[in-house]
Design goal:
With about 800 residues, the chain is of the alpha+beta class. The protein has twelve helices and 47 strands. An eight-stranded mixed sheet has the order 38-39-42-40-44-45-46-47, sandwiched between helices. α11 (about 750-760) links the parallel β46 and β47. α8 (about 635-655) crosses α9.
Length: about 800
């Protein structure tokens, strides 16, 4: 192993001496792929809380590279446009339409500017209005619209949208929102001449943290970040706008259910150079609507030593939230085991606390959990549901209790492995209460509730609705999706009449909304979205199951070109696309995911487009990495990875659709990491294409993916799991693609740059493509089309036409 590392280091030095490669500019793939990438996006759907109306959110074509190249600051873990004080990335909405829940009375929103950049669409509590932001070249505006007239009105501008939690409705129809300071002056600029070094110092206190990106680096960054992060809280009340409370770096605001109080989080100095803003010193307070601080809940210091390990949490209060079935009760949870679950044997490990308005008394212990607290779904004074679980064992427990006497009435109703999709009972359906919050949807005078889930099975997902009897524990199946359709539940519109809003699709029918009446047995179509991919008509899709050499069940979704005849055309060049996932139970690792009856959605970056170029696609092939009998999954990562790949290829060859000499491996992020390993440790593939991966695990020394051990606790593991270490073993062509503005933890662009240097120095056939301005996921039309051009050239040369 050490010899390999030294050899790799020597190789890199020699590779770095090589000059720049060809720079052809942005290129276009074949026309069939261009048309799929340019396909119109299906509108988004936003159902009102009262289940009476629907907003259709029209989305534009893909952004251009010019859009991604607009001014952008990257500080404290966030990216924003300094010209607008708003988000610099993300999708926008260009038009809003409304319709009744049954699809009638379709009308467009009037009064918005031409070519708007709409975001943050939210319904008012009574669903008579909705609010949204509109971003111009210079500012972020706040707008509201009346549903009855579908007329929009501009309320204010200068919103501070860098934290993306800009506004919220109050029950009385007013809006509270964050606005930049009107008198803040000119933005500070970075010094052109350094005034001194940037210094960090540790006084012997442990400070483990993962590899965050876009961080503050120097005092100039600190001043700039504080300028843009500072807001004042405003309240709009039907024409009157007024400031509320003191200004500051407000990151979160949440009104109480009755709208009389605000839960406010502010960050403060000192800033950190190694963690994002949400680990900075902060205060969590409750304000009244005049901006007076009613109580200080938490004054949290800077946190640079982040918890690492299974079921490890920060000691002290966490997860502040409002109780949804009470007018103004704040709740939170605290660890009873100093934050280290597995180091302390005790019955209860987490304690939930409550504090009622006016928040003058002492916090009241409410309910304790034996495992880590995961949440409460409130119902009424007599019923609520508690979730708790553990990441190490993957156990998840659901219990019911009476809020009047929680600990004494706690009753476990479900206990499952969170990876066990086949036995998942589903999640409780909720309904909007008088405060506009979600609470349990009950039936039979509170004796039953409704459960809805994906309904995973060996035949694929079959979503369902069950009625669960709280006394007997028995479930009654009310509805289940039936072949040849894949239908999911959006809303239960009328529980008494068993009328629900669903999304229904099939292999040949695009997803659309329907109203299904279970009692009458009727089905009415609400939306009429059209197929955006007529180019894929005739493409064959098939759910394929098979076994690994150790008996683990596996599967992939097979796609074959339109008109393909395996008898006449013979085996095809093939692309295997996968993403490894960790499990602790072999029985859950091979469970089927997805449905053979769903419509084929093709994202602009998907490898499915290559089915138009004569390739078979083994899509989302199962790649379980299993840790059992005391082993961690990664202890046998490489051998399981190769076994997964071999099993998939063998099955496709057995079916007669794949030429075993012409198979490519490809993946994104951890899938890219997988691809590099497969080319290092096997000769199963003619070539590989790895997108935005991490290839040197010493650059993520405090853990990665689901790995909890540090580099210093398991150095051999980190070296073995680093494709960089094995660069000299790669014998088949490997294309590396990476966004130059990648902001994902651990996948710095330098990961691909150093790995390419190692491969090139080792004499491997390789190519590195760095996409300007692109983050971890690629967004601009130019980049996506060029990426597909790179794919098709690489695949055609080294796979389809392999000599």
């Amino acid at each position: 192993m050490i010899k390999e590392i030294l050899l790799t280091a020597i190789i890199i030095v020699s590779a770095l001496a090589v000059g720049a490669q060809d720079t052809p500019g942005y290129q276009l793939p074949p026309a069939e792929i261009v048309s799929i990438v340019d396909a119109p996006q299906t509108p988004g759907v936003l159902v009102s809380r009262d289940n009476k109306s629907i907003l259709l959110l029209e989305r534009p074509e893909l952004p251009s590279i010019a859009d991604l190249s607009r001014p952008e600051l990257r500080l404290a873990g966030i990216r924003f446009n300094p010209s607008t004080n708003g988000s610099s990335r993300g999708q926008r909405v260009v038009m809003i339409s409304a319709m009744n829940i049954d699809g009638s009375n379709l009308r467009e929103l009037k009064g918005v500017p031409a070519d708007p950049h709409i975001g943050g669409v939210t319904w008012s509590n009574d669903c008579s209005m909705f609010a949204f932001t509109n971003t111009t070249d210079a500012t972020v505006e706040l707008w509201m619209a009346d549903l009855a007239t579908m007329t929009a009105l501009k309320i204010d501008e200068g919103l501070n949208d860098i934290f993306r939690r800009t506004m919220t409705w109050l029950p009385d129809g007013s809006i509270v929102y964050l606005r930049t300071l009107s008198d803040r002056g000119k933005a500070p600029e970075a010094s052109k001449v350094p005034k001194g070094p940037a210094i960090q110092e540790s006084a012997g206190v442990r400070g483990e943290s993962r590899t965050f990106q876009d961080l503050i680096k120097n005092p100039d960054d600190e001043r700039i970040f504080e300028y843009y992060a500072t807001s004042e809280l405003m309240r709009w009340s039907g024409g009157n706008t007024a400031a509320v409370g003191s200004s500051g770096m407000i990151t979160d605001l949440s009104p109480s259910p009755d709208g009389k109080y605000l839960l406010i989080t502010k960050i403060d100095k000192p800033f950190s150079y190694i963690v994002p803003y949400y680990y900075f010193p902060s205060t969590t307070q409750i304000w009244d609507l005049q901006g007076n601080v009613v109580t200080m809940l938490l004054d949290k210091p800077l946190q640079e030593n982040l918890p690492r390990g299974y079921d490890v949490v920060n000691p002290g209060p966490r997860n502040y939230s409002w109780r949804s079935d009470r007018p103004a009760t704040i709740m939170w949870v605290e660890a009873l085991d100093e934050g280290n679950y597995h180091a302390n044997e005790m019955q209860y490990h987490d304690q939930v606390y409550m504090l009622d308005a006016p928040f003058a008394g002492e916090p009241v212990p409410f309910i304790a959990t034996e495992k880590r607290y995961q949440g409460i779904v409130w119902g009424n004074d007599n019923l609520a549901m508690l979730s708790e679980g553990l990441s190490k064992s993957r156990i998840r427990v659901t219990s019911t209790f009476s809020p009047a006497d929680p600990q004494a009435t706690l009753k476990k109703i479900f206990e499952i492995n969170s990876d066990d999709r086949y036995n998942n009972p589903g999640f409780p359906l909720t309904v909007t209460n008088s405060y506009g919050r979600q609470v349990l949807l009950l039936a039979d005078r509170g004796r039953s509730l409704y459960l809805s889930g994906q309904g995973a099975s060996p035949e694929g997902d079959r979503p369902f609705i069950d009625k669960y009897d709280l006394r007997s524990g028995k479930t009654t199946r009310l509805w289940r999706s039936e072949a040849p359709y894949y239908e999911t539940v959006s809303e239960l519109i009328d529980p008494a009449k068993q009328v629900m809003l669903t999304v229904r699709q099939s292999v040949n029918e695009v997803p659309n909304y329907f109203i299904r009446d279970l009692k009458k047995g009727t089905l009415k179509q609400v939306t009429h979205f059209e197929n955006p991919y007529p180019q894929l008509d005739g493409v064959h899709r098939e759910l394929v199951t098979y076994k690994r050499n150790d008996g683990i069940d596996l599967s992939f979704m097979l796609y074959l070109p339109s008109g393909y005849d395996r008898e006449k055309d013979g085996p095809l060049p093939t692309i295997l696309w996968a993403y490894p996932r960790e499990y602790n139970d072999p029985s859950t690792a091979g469970q089927i995911s997805g449905s053979p009856y769903s419509f084929t959605r093709v994202s602009p970056s998907s490898v499915l487009v290559y089915v138009t170029q004569g390739y078979a696609i083994l899509m989302n092939a199962s790649f379980p990495i299993i840790g059992a009998e005391g082993q961690e999954p990664n202890d046998t990562f490489v051998s399981q990875l190769v076994a997964n790949a071999g099993a998939a290829i063998n099955k496709a060859v057995e079916m007669g659709v794949t030429d075993p000499a012409r198979v490519a491996a490809s993946g994104h992020s951890y899938g890219a990491f997988m691809t590099a390993h497969l080319l290092s440790h096997s000769r199963l593939f003619a070539a590989g294409i790895a997108r935005s991966g991490a290839y040197n695990r010493s650059l993520t020394p405090f853990g990665f993916q689901s790995e909890r051990r540090s580099f210093w606790e398991a150095p051999e593991l980190y070296l073995e799991m680093s494709p960089f270490t094995h660069a000299t073993k790669v014998k088949d062509p490997l294309l590396l693609i990476h966004g130059m503005a990648d902001n994902n933890q651990g996948t710095f662009p330098i990961q691909s740059e150093r790995y390419y240097a190692a491969l090139k120095g080792a004499g491997a056939t390789t190519r590195l493509v760095l996409l300007p301005a692109e983050a971890h996921g690629y967004a601009s039309r130019e980049s996506l089309l060029h990426m597909h051009w790179e794919y098709t050239r690489w695949l055609d040369k080294y796979v389809k036409n392999k000599k």
